[in-house]
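--- STAGE predict ---
source: upstream dedup step, 1 unique chain passed
mode: sequence only
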Amino acid sequence: MKRKELSLIAGIALCTLTVLLTVVYVMRPAPTDGVVYVAPCDTDADTAEAIRAVTESGYMSLSLVDGSAYFYPDQPVRRGELAVILCAMLSPETGADKDAALGIADEHDVPASQLSAVRTAVAHGYMRLHGDYTFRPSAMLTREEVADVFGALCAVEVSTGRTEEITDLDEISPHFRKNAERLIELGILQGSDGRLRPKDIITREELALIIHRITESEYFIQRKP
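--- STAGE serialize ---
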């Protein structure tokens, strides 16, 4: 009888040890060795650091084509894409907004992959609806529209004199001007040859530069509900 009892105890101990080892193996962190950043082949040295930062952070995406990474820096940014980027940057709780009816008149035009982000961006005030309550997810964004969005994410009013160097400041729409001026003063939104060109469509490269500068700024508000 004693031999049977010892065998039973040994069997139970062996099973327990096996289960414990299995749990430890499953719970251990996934290895990170071998994860290498692939630099896009369609960007230049002047913007490489910003693009690397925003893509490694998961704010903006790269596309792999035949083994090569592409950022498509000259492509325009659309409103639905910006909503996704903002949610990635600000990490809001999306549970309450996921199925919320927010009165977006053209919600049926929002791609399924962007719908949750669009609802969240509107619910938390990251982006505005148009006067007819449409979001227009495929509409291309201008530089002044993006300035309005990101200017609202900075917590300070500063006066550096940078706005005085912009010759086309009066071309900014009145309802975008306050936030645009804030970004200019902080050096986050920059012009070229003294011009801001606020009505120009913003490119992915330009947006990457703004995101990189604002996330590096001490004045960036990482707003959470």
